[in-house]
């Protein structure tokens, strides 16, 4: 069969998966539904990423290095919880509402409740109590986050089987997360900080508000999105787990996107953690966090209309590599510009955020490609398992970033008891917020260029070969 004819099958054949003819076709409603899912996720995820470390250090008075240990332990636990939950989801039967959507709705309520409890400070308790409260609530919250995020991420592959539509979903998902980032990043510092210090009562109020908004978004995701690709029930076979593991080990695109994603998460979480200290202490302007967070989210909305045309013309790999190169160069430049103001810093970092946004917009489309490659290698369609492996890598990245961020803030000499940090500490914070991200972004650029194998041409060929394999299987 010619390549052109193979490609004709892409939109209508999915590894024995059959689109349900009784549901409405894929459209704008699904895009908004999927957007709302990450909108809800990131209301709390970003609240935690941006403010939890400074809440623990300045309100609970936990040492930054200890916070780093907590973040590392929790994220490593979550990484394994992701895989266990992914395997669990893949063994569930499809319900009339779908295979993944019901779990999003069921688990969102306990997730939000525990999320609010993280920011509760009970007056008059001992330091040991606050430390124990932090460990228990944070670890439980992270585990519950897996029970919502794994089915949500896996759902993209059953909303549609079309590669172009999946890329569109990736963009809408990122836009949902950035919309939450826009609200939290811009409004959060204004709401939470009083006289350049975090206020515990305002922090709790913010957690409650964003928790309610998160629940509304999860319900909207459940109501608006439709699972229309249904995999036939497969009898349980002896050794199926072994076949899955062999396929995962041989899946070179998966391995390298895992490594790149893990590294990217380290950089993103590190920037989010350090930025609070960078603007609060180095620039002496905590409210400027609102501006930099506005820029971070705004670049995604600016680039979103150009995503599909750019990917169609250049390819996902090529576009992502350019984004990381741009971000790395800009952050390296900022390292040498030590005497600029907070506003000037934000103006320059905006260019780097464009590169960051490019990678963010296409990353979820990479995941659907590696899921397809797993199917091509093994003949097994295991969306939740493969996605959970990917999510595990991101959690490891979060663990590394959380631990690294806390340890490095402590190493440079940050002391929450001081009204003004020493100049040496301020210089260290500046290096953490500029030089370290520059190095990490440039490493990701090299990974994508030299090691990730699915460029534009090979991705199209994979789709064609997989379409033919599906047709041949159905004809047997």
TrEMBL record:
Name of the molecule in the record: MFS transporter
InterPro entries per UniProt: MFS_2 (IPR039672), MFS_dom (IPR020846), MFS_trans_sf (IPR036259), Na/Gal_symport (IPR001927)
Membrane topology listed for this record: Multi-pass membrane protein
Keywords attached to this entry: Membrane, Transmembrane, Transmembrane helix, Transport
SUPFAM superfamilies: MFS general substrate transporter
GO molecular function, one term: symporter activity
GO biological process: carbohydrate transport; sodium ion transport
Pfam families: MFS_2
CDD domains in the cross-refs: MFS_MelB_like
Spans traversing the lipid bilayer: 32-56, 62-83, 103-122, 128-150, 171-192, 204-224, 254-274, 286-307, 319-337, 343-367, 399-417, 429-452
Broad class of the protein's primary localization: membrane
